[in-house]
């Protein structure tokens, strides 16, 4: 009983008469502000004893007087899932209100009152509700504002606070506003007085109780929001005194995994803690609360990589702490947080831009000694910091001196970290003596700062001091620096005794120091102050000492900094040159660079300086163009720089995009070194003259325009002499001239090889150097290869399971270059099989992690970590577009196929490492991998039962040529390149749609050229009608400008069979309907159909939301994400807007039977889908019938998932008999589609078939639907005997029985048996529950 008494902390019982409002929920407006600028808010208070689900409430409004007297104009709802607890307030404010308002705001809303509007508080739905409170009314336009408390037009420039004597709402505005200050329910405050916002008090007389009280009570024990509470208290009687119970001793605070088990039984009990650490005092003075933990809590991403298992485990452990509160309720909601916070991509891009910018020496100095300081708003292992460390070589000096595990300069929500950094370049770090934070701010309570808000008069004095503590919320970072004196190139200091330097850095070795200069170096400009035994002032000498040198100065001379070196020297084994150049139609421009050397080239040491239309200064470049940070060019590989809007065939092999490529009359060179110190190794054009239209080459005039140039295979090195390179004839020119837009060689380059020929089984002696080159052990700088004889091949190493990310380095690195054999493996990606001869192999099925687990869960992090490591099966051929395609068997054709999900056995070959991937190379002399079709083709559509079939088809950029659309040659065309390709695409598309025989088909990625004659939609309809019967299909048309759905080149469309269904109404959702639905989503189409046979109506909603590719940071302030792709917020807002829109019945039909289909570009556990499921009650029907763990309609980078959905409303889901993907596209290789690019003449035939396989890149989703007949309310059915129906559905676990005696029929009675099939369902079913 002691626990129960301890729970009697609130006893506010207020009665509202409104019949439909829950008895113990009593909401009313407690505060209203119409202030300066955007300082507007509305506060709602719960004076009841139960929490209010705000999904049942609304704040309907009229603006400047009603359109129809007494009727609201806007039905404004609360944020989905919002709850208002007893004694709490809920604040709705303008999104640009002052921060003091936003600090206590629960929901933002733009269209708050300007003082002359009416707003009411309503409980219920739009169709059935009751008003419980009002500010203004819906009867008149008040003019400037409403009169209140005897003051004229005083709802403008005002703050109104409900009197403490008011304990319930008042829908009678005249009574509420009164006529004087006395009979008014409000207290009037001046404009911008917000001291009460966020909390509200009411006067409730309940008697006085004390801590040792003993008594009885009347009420109800209830689990209220996971806390056991005594609610609906009707009486409290004081009976006497009793001793307080002994506290329960809690010796250690539980983790998240154990808190439920340990703490829930202790709710309401008196507890005592063992000594604990205070980890957050942020809200101590504001709300009287502190965060307590058992120990130090660093931010997890400061200690571990955010995608690592260790990060997930640490994140899980430290999040459960206890809050020490002062038992004084107030409200201050905090936003949700992800692992690395919002805008991580913005910060990453910023640090990357900074790192690149600093490499250009923007201050004009050539020094590379750089120190980056300040608040980067990122922790050590987050990508903004890791970009600077891994890509640009900076060192985290805080971690170096004090360790990231224990260092901090900022505390937030009980977690300590350093957002304030000191990152040093590799050249400067050795000169830093110490880095430390001065701990004067972050650990101090914020009430000790200068602010006077939220403090009593005495606290303004007692909490303040002029000292440094809490001068900010971040601790200052202090760095010690000791730079050496400027020294000449060569010096051997005279022997000297050096005093030790106080530093944690290792001291330099004592003794003589000698700095040497490469041959050709000079030092004559740096001799002042240096003395020797003679001659130092005129030339370099071997031994010099600076006259002002000190012991400490000499101790810092740890690096030989050489000044004045002649032209940069290219590494001997790196040989780069221009291998291809194109200046074609439109934006089809590119520059290809080839590495003919034996070592990889770090392109950070290279550049492509240019002049435009002739140089400004003869011989001098105008633009120093650098490569993408971190770019590397491996031996035998090419690097392509192309215009960002070039043809997709070019972009498919592009490494870097650049807008200002040559128009044919520019000069470009390939340079090694820096701007200040570089050497040219190749050229196209020169920096000496303006060539006019273009440069002469190979004896042809002005032929660097509308041309493709490919370097001859005999050329093995660059030539900076442009005149020699371009020659005067085709014979003495180093280039081969091809016509405009001939790109068959881009992405690969061949050179003649005169090296020693070896064959399998040769025993060889190789002279060279063993080197770890880009993480692969290689033999480089080979100077000799001798064949000594023959030897048997080694036995392969058997790898029985592919390693995960955590184990790959340990397991695979020792096997590099060795012959290995795999146990049977699954093919998980064939995207580049025909393009580059490679496939991705895995030990098993790899679903996208966010389809199986919540992206912020520990399980998601673990799964994400496991599935990322796979092996690549490669064909050991660096060329592109192999013919035949190397796998399966003798070569892939349409019929000799391999699909993702198939199994390979006998995979044997040497293990290599390139492009951050481990690869098994195809090797002659070993059996080819054998294919087992464990994911065979489905020749016919799946049987989804039902009387109707609904289908969603992505038709992969179905563009049928001009009139009325765009021509095949138009750059806006995203589909077939010509009429021949389109004819093939059309046949494949029709062969996929026709056999499904769907009553309604949603089409995605179809050309946005209307619905009329010649349109892409009508073309599909015509083709289907020709393949089936005349008038079988017809399109749903929409009344839109130019017949176009939105502004994108592609759109959604709907076609249907009028013999099966008829159109009842249609509607379109775009940004003009709801700004939350951004225009970068294709407009959503909703059409209500009526089934001809049953008379029932249902609504099909077709979508194609923003992709996960390009960023939405710039357009929409939506941060990029690793786990859920870019633009997740844009898609979430879109699905929320869609669900709200559908609740308004936009098609004009009142049916709630809704089916959402199409490409939502989101997986099951991502917020766009969870919004529809959790907030609006839709059901993922793919998961229901086939499970999210094994279902897919799309494959990307070896990961399978379904972006294409079938989500049913709660009323429709029972009428769905089956949902399945027809697996004809996603698992097939892309070379089997209609395109002819990248295929030989024979492959154009052998890889193509008119059948449905690879008609798109997404699988169609097919839904079976069985709607009940529309029946009268009552019927006594004829007795009938029903044959048993075979079904895989589990029986309903229920003790209910059915009886048709005197029962009322349900109109949808047949839905009880949906999915069973059979003609008996055409009758009516009546039942009575027992």
From TrEMBL:
Pfam families in alphabetical order: LTD
LTD domain location: 17-133, 566-682
Signal sequence, start to end: 1-18
Swiss-Prot/TrEMBL keywords: Signal
Identification of the protein by name: LTD domain-containing protein
Organism of provenance: Polarella glacialis
Species classification: Eukaryota, Sar, Alveolata, Dinophyceae, Suessiales
